[in-house]
Amino acid sequence: MTKTRIVSLSLGLTLAASGIAHAHATFEKDTAPVETTFKAVLQVPHGCDGKPTTEVQIKLPEGFVFAQPQPKPGWEIEIIKGDYQKTYDNHGKKVSSGPLEIRWKGGNLPNEYYDTFVVRGKVSGFDKETVLAFPTTQLCGTEGKVVWDQVAAEGQNAHDLKSPAPTVTVTMADAADPHAGHGGHMAAAGGSAKVGDLDISGGSVKAMLPGAKVGGGFLTIKNGGAGEDRLVAVESPAAARVEIHEMKMENDVMRMRKLDDGVALPAGETVELKAGGLHLMFMDVKTPFKEGDTVPVTLVFEKAGKVDATFPVGSAKGGEAAGGQKHH
């Protein structure tokens, strides 16, 4: 398969006079399907000739768009923005500019320790398998500097380079899968979806009475990763908005409140959104949900990104979160 190599800087740069250690700065995962959200986890294995790392800079190549860096305690973040070479679609909105470089500054990572620096973005605009290079620089105070910017030429082995840039290979979506390239999908009949370390199952919505404007939705999320994530938002073209709610007993009265901060997903745990507890509320529904139909939704997670799903519409019987109930 033909590959295109994209480099954001001149390949003539080399390590500064501080020299180079054997371990390279690399990404934890180095492949991503086209038109999906990718979490680039940069692994920094050492400092500059024994000196602690105080700043990490990552230049973002064309096609890695809508980038969002993950904060790190003790480090400041600088986001350098500019124009993209092309225009990209962000859920119906045309975007032609955004972050081009991320800098974590003012920290202190001793040479003896390993750490990661994370930036999330979408890989977009490719029609064939492509290798994206992310030129990276480590600064160690005013005395040390390591630059990872070299990219292997066609036929060259990247392991032969002294200072290889971290790379991500963009792969093509499977044309046989109509949902490919959306980060995941959920089949209408009890299917499942996966995005990052999260497994989504049991997604469904309740059928609504004629004329009702509010519908309830449910799902189960298992976090198989080592870090906490959070369901921060849900979107659907079937409703004006989707809110995350919680029902709980207070002074012998069942009360419901909107969770503006979303739902925490602790590492290694399963969180169930169900009737009578945590659940979704579809507000100002355009057409009341009918049993046997399906409802498209997009789940938005703080770290894992977005995933498209299709929830089947079940019976209106049972479950206090069904559309238009008196607690609303």
TrEMBL record:
It comes from the Bacteria. It holds the Pfam family PCuAC. This is DUF1775 domain-containing protein. Gene3D superfamilies: PCu(A)C copper chaperone (2.60.40.1890), Uncharacterised protein YcnI-like PF07987, DUF1775 (2.60.40.2230). Residues 1-23 form the signal peptide. It comes from Ensifer adhaerens (Sinorhizobium morelense). Residues 24-170 form the YncI copper-binding domain. Keywords: Signal. InterPro entries: LpqE-like, Lxx211020-like, PCuAC_sf, UCP037139, YcnI-copper_dom, YcnI-like_sf.
